[in-house]
Amino acid sequence: MFPMGKPIIALATPPLKGALAVIRLTGDGVFEIADALFSKKVSGIQERTIFLGSLRDENGKTIDQVVLLAYPAPRTMTGEDVVEVMPHGSMLIVNEIIASFLAKGCVYATRGEFSARAFYNGKMDLVEAEAVNDLINATTVEAKDLALQSLNGASSKLIAPVEQEIADLMALVEVGIDFPEYEDIESASEAKIIEGATSIIMKVDELIKDGQEGRIIKNGVNVALVGEPNVGKSSLLNALLKQEKAIVSPIPGTTRDIVEGDLSVHGVPLHLLDTAGIRDASDVIENLGVERSEKAIEEADLVILVLDASREELTIQEKEILEKAKKKKLIVCYNKEDLAKKRDDKKLYISALKNDVQPLKEAIFQTLSLSDDAFHKPSLSNPRQLSLLRKIKEEMLSAKKEAENGAGMDIISLFLQAAYNAARSLLGKGETNDLQDEIFSRFCVGK
C-alpha cells in the first residue's frame, strides 16, 4: 500500500520542451511548503484559488514566473490538499522547481500514486481508477468515450444489481441458519436458491459478453498475417497501413522477423503482425522467423491466411496453417485477385498491390461480431474485471448445483459468500462476512 499523507510531487506533462509544464503535488503540508517557495501565501485558503507569482528555490533565488493552482481538501482529486504549478516548459526550469520542493520535504510520487490516493480516500472506486489509465492509453475516439464512461462511474453501476442480488440470497440463507426460531422471517429454500442463482448468472453472462466487446474496442485485437512466402503479406501490410512499412521483394523469405503496425477499422484498433512466410526453410535465420510466425498465430486474436489467387489448390503448409489457426477467429483472403483463373463468390478477393483491401477491412470488422451498441455501452472490460465476473459466475453455478443436489444451506452459503466477495472486489471493496443489515431488514416491524 502507498504511504498516505506524505507530500508527493510529479511532473504531470511529458518530460519534453514546450510552452508550459504542469507539476502536481498532493499530501499533508503542501500548502505550507508552497508558502516557503512561492511569492504569495497559499495556506489558509478555503476555496480553489489561482495565483500568479514567482517561485524561488530553497535559497531564495527566483526560478520562474508561474501560475499556481491550489485546491484545499477534501474537494480534490486525491481528497488531500493539491497544488499544481505551471511554469514555462523548459525541463531545466521544471527540474529546478521539483528539486526545490524535494528540498522542502516532498518526495517523488511513484507510478499511479495520485490515483491510488484518490482510491484510498474514497474519491473513486477501483473501476474508476483503472479508467484513468484507459483514458490515457486510448488510441481511438471510441476507446476514449468508453473510458470516460467508466471514469464517470457508469461501469461501476453495472455490478451493483448483481452484488445486491447475491446479498439478498445470502441474507435468506443466513436467516435460516442463524435465526431458525423466527417464523415470520423469509428464509431460503432450494427453489429460491436455484431461481436467484439463475437470475444472477444470466446478468453476469451479459456483463461478460459486454466486457469482451468493450475490451476489443479499448485495447484492440492482435491480427497475424500468415501464409507462404510471396503471397503478398508484406504488400498487404503496407496497403492496410497506407505506408511502406515492410520490405516487398519477389525473393522468397524476405521477411525474417515480425513486422508490426497499427490502424483503426470502424473504431476498433488493430495491431497487425506481418509474419515470415511459413515453409520448410534451410536458412537458420529464416527458420527462426518461421518459428516466430507460428508463435504469432498462437498469440493472435485474429488470423488472416493470405493465399495466392492464381493457385487453386492449398499447399501442405497452408493446410497446416489452417489446422493451427482453427481455434482462432480466422479469415482466408485471396490476394492478387487479377491473377485468379476463376472467381468464387464465396471467397474473399483483394489486391494488395492495387491497395484494394477495403473488402478485407470489412471482413475483419464483421468477424469481430461487435453489437451495434458496444461502442456506446459502459462495460467491465479489463482482465481483472472479467476474471472477477467469471469468478462470480463460477461460484453461483456451484451454489445452484448444490441446491439442485439438496446440499445443506451451510454449504451453499460458502459459494454465495465467495461470489459476493468477488463482486465487492470489482470496485475495490474489502471482503466481508457482515450481512447483519440485510438480515435484520427482513424482520417484521417491532422485532
Which shape, going by the Cα principal axes? flat
By secondary-structure content and strand pairing, the structural class works out as alpha/beta
In the sheet with the most strands, the strands line up as 4-5-6-3-1-8
Q: What is the helix content?
A: 40-55%
Report the span from N to C terminus: 43 Å
Tally of structural domains? 3
Average pLDDT metric: 86
Number of helices: 14
> What string, H for helix and E for strand, traces the elements in order?
EEEHEEEEHEHHHHHEHEEHEHEEHHHH
Instruction: Just give the CATH class of the largest domain.
Output: Alpha Beta
Q: C-alpha Rg, in Å?
A: 29 Å
Please characterize this protein's 3D structure.
This protein has 447 residues and is α/β, with parallel strands linked by helices. The chain has three domains: 8-120, 2-Layer Sandwich (Gyrase A, domain 2), CATH 3.30.1360.120; 156-214 and 379-440, Up-down Bundle (Four Helix Bundle (Hemerythrin (Met), subunit A)), CATH 1.20.120; 219-368, Rossmann fold, CATH 3.40.50. Helices cover 43% and strands 17% of the residues. It has helices spanning 30-37, 91-103, 113-120, 126-137, 141-151, 160-178, 190-219, 233-241, 284-299, 316-324, 358-368, 383-404, 409-426, 436-440; strands at residues 8-11, 18-20, 23-26, 49-56, 62-71, 82-86, 88-89, 107-108, 221-226, 259-265, 268-274, 302-308, 329-335, 348-349. The protein has a six-stranded mixed β-sheet. It has a six-stranded mixed β-sheet with strand order 10-11-9-12-13-14, sandwiched between helices. Helix 5 (141-151) crosses helix 7 (190-219). It is flat.
